[in-house]
Batch of 4 targets.
Target 1
Amino acid sequence: MNVLQLPLGPLQTNCYILSNDMNEAVIFDPGEEAHVIFNVIEENKLKPLAILLTHAHFDHIGAVDDVRDEYNIPVYIHKYEADWLTDGQKNGSELFMRNQSIFAREADHLIEKEGKMEIGPFLFSIFETPGHSPGSVSFYCKEIKTVFSGDALFEGSIGRTDLPGGDHEQLIRSIKGKLLSLPDDVVVCSGHGETTTIGDEKRYNPFL
């Protein structure tokens, strides 16, 4: 399998594209600049199967509808943020984007709880990792020892908790109880910045 990291938009929010040897792909957090995503998919001759959202803050959802409509694929999000896609106040765009709100249509599928998720040939373990936002989830692909953590855990840092629905203590519990329970060599694909590993964050992250 292959993971492509695309930092998009003014906040350089990471969109990830996970693909296999058959060129099938899933797309995580298409936050902005849909044309960049389209170009990468075309260049690599990929066949997208779904959009998976780690959470619904505006910088992670700005290109959702463009990508969904281009490839006619479903969108998945946790049930606790089902209405954030259509609400500029909840997704933060009204707070940060002057005179502009960012929306997406409702998701096609709601993630109800932790457990296994199959998208075509892709198998993920879903961890509920709230704290940055109430419906934050992380997608762990055991086959490639990689977790897509959204804005829960970063290289040497953690997600901010001063936005609506944020909870610092809850985020620390999520990270320590869910993410840090993974093997040390698991790669962490964060919502911003560079990738890291579980082992490095255990050893060097000053917040943990």
Target 2
Amino acid sequence: MTNPLLATDSYKQSHFCQYPPEARRISAYVEARPNGFSEDVLFFGLQAYLKKVLLTPITAAQIAQAGAVCAAHGVPFNRDGWQQILEDHGGLFPLEIKALPEGTLAPSGVPLVQVENTDERMPWLTTWVETALLRSLWYPSTVATLSLKCKEIIYRGLLATSDDPDAQVPFKLHDFGARGVSSAESAALGGMAHLVNFAGTDTMEAVEAASTWYGAEMAGFSIPAAEHSTMTSWGADREEQAYANMLEQFAAPGKLVAVVSDSYDIDNAVNRIWCGSLKERVLNSGATVVIRPDSGDPVATPLRVLETLWSSYGGTENRKGARVLNPAIRVIQGDGMTLKSIRELVGELVRQKWSVDNIAFGMGGGLLQQLNRDTMRFAMKANAMKTADDHWVDVSKNPVSDPGKASKAGRQAVVERDGRLQAARLDNIDPATDQLKPVYRDGRLLTDWSFDEVRARSNGHLAQKVAA
């Protein structure tokens, strides 16, 4: 969809004639309502929407196209309103958007964004953008939150078993989710959200997005790695040769190469080949060869592989009393990894005195696709209306049938009290203390967060959570 006038729900095309006649401005906010997934949300993704959509003027051709589509579709079309935006605002949306700094970890129920129309002829515009704005926020923020939850589990495991947890953690969860999402844009936004917390990815749209929207020079990295087709094309009788070719092509001093090794029998491949016929080539290569089991129990299988590798390659015991394999050999577990299985596997590694240094984790659809807007109950709701007599009146909902869907009344603010962010009414605080700061106004970007700034903010929150 390239016409922003059609990037909304059909029913919103009729809302311009539904507000009361005294309406001049509408204020609305976005939050992740209290939910069963996470007490906090890692806010991320707004800047991509601002730059991609709101900094691009609408055109007369888009108005004409949207008018024709709406007529055929059976809904009204606010041609006069869009024409005013085109002629009086150069095609740029007359809105003010305030937001928390991206990378902020905010409690659920705390507003992340607040939107208000600046042209008083257009109170309908604030909530008209809900559809595109909300999906630009809920998805990357939910992925970023899930990724951070995984990072906390892994980091705690590293603190218990690694001599250098801070250097280890950036590459401990690798994104394999590009093929499992619904669109290239989802891969870009979700993959980029994961990169707020980690530096390992195979989603190339994500590194492009981080560069385009947040100025990252290179946000994510990968290594040469085998897939089943490149291994099984050699045939079962040449499995060893397939692995040997990987060493010949990619194993050099200081390099890493990952080899999927379960095409036929993971235990045979590890015992007979990696710990047998190819062992000396691995040791002499100067590289680190990463063995990838890709089937079986996601906890028991990698633990079994580690034990086999230890019996052959050996290693050392670090200062935490945990076993660290010979640096020539490592394991990555990318199959069946979820928040639950990562927690279980890390727990077993710690219990069995394995350093988490020995293993990396990978996630695909579980990271980028197996979530939705209801995972963290994201919503955008109107909270105030400015009337013709220049007064703001409260706007809210409070359904008897579901009190959990009650919305906030009055223009919102976010304040910090006792080190934690809280929602407040804007008219009850000193506006200077409001953590919601203008990021967009009338076609101008007011704040341009760099990817490094977002990452630093998220890393700071992780350090606080672990220290608490």
Target 3
Amino acid sequence: MKSEWKAVYKVIPDERDLIEDTLKQMCDQERCCLVVTTGGTGPAPRDVTPEATEAVCDRMMPGYGEQMRAISLKHVPTAVLSRQTAGLRGKSLIMNLPGKPKAIRETIDEVFASVPACVQLLEGPYLETNDAVVKAFRPAGLIRSSKPAAP
């Protein structure tokens, strides 16, 4: 079975109010189960994405930021400057990724393994992955059988 989904893209400037409003719109109106931001996670004065994310989330998911930094530290010592984070707003998972394409690829490939289980626990859709790219990890209670239900 294929996971049905539609990508929604937004490109906005690094302005906290605009980031907060856009995150709310994507979670509340667009009903995105996963919202991924890129950039704005460093120590520069304009880097306000983590603060905007924290402001709109009901609960934070610090494990994602910890894992992303650990992955990046394998590649660059400046990963300690990153303030990547993730949080939950309603039934949406919001993840702040780094801004550089190489760093995005390095972190998302490894971190994404847990995203389908998180989305499922939030009562979102059952996300399937291409195992050749990333194999989703699900605890036994979250694995859906591929066999059709008995009549």
Target 4
Amino acid sequence: MTDFTHIDTYVFDLDNTLYPAHCHLFGQIDRRMSEFIQARLSLDETSARKIQKHYYSAYGTTLSGLMKEHGVQPRDFLDYVHDIDVSVVPQDEGLRAAIAALPGKRYIFTNGSVRHAENVAGKIGILDLFHDIFDIEAADYLPKPHEDTYHAFNRRFGITPSRAAMFEDLPQNLVAAHALGKTTVLVQSDADWMEDEPEDKRPSRPGETYDHVHHVTADLTSFLTGLKTAA
């Protein structure tokens, strides 16, 4: 069993981490980001897609680039891109039981909005298991992987990094967590709809390893149920 007896705080990313990437929920968000850019900047689909991915790579999120380069109001963007069909996300009793068994505090740490996190986690059936949600607004719109945002998260909830574990699907979002002393867990996927993501921002695939990642898994529920935790 993997020894997590030193962990008293469990931090989870939301998208493609708490639900399986192959359900394609984030694919809906991805398409709506392109649609928003097409309409707001009067661009064709190809040009909008290019801008979307460039800003994602350069600024950490597409939203950050749109705010800095075009003065887009974050609420307009977030409300539009998160207006999605969550019926594709499966309710997951196994994951619920695994998270409920974790001792200590549990948080969602997302570059999305609280509304989106509540919507998705509610559909999975795990929302009530989390003590709080730290979203992009709480981060003052400075997204992961910026290290200042991790410090802000830790301050908000009084987290001791050496006693915290962070779960993410994007390896670059675990760099700062590792540097601050957290145990890092990478949730990998081979979902093919993510093939056009920028190479420096794409989700990790099974078999890939990183110096700043302590553990990897393609099955979050199995990983959590296999932990040796504090009594």
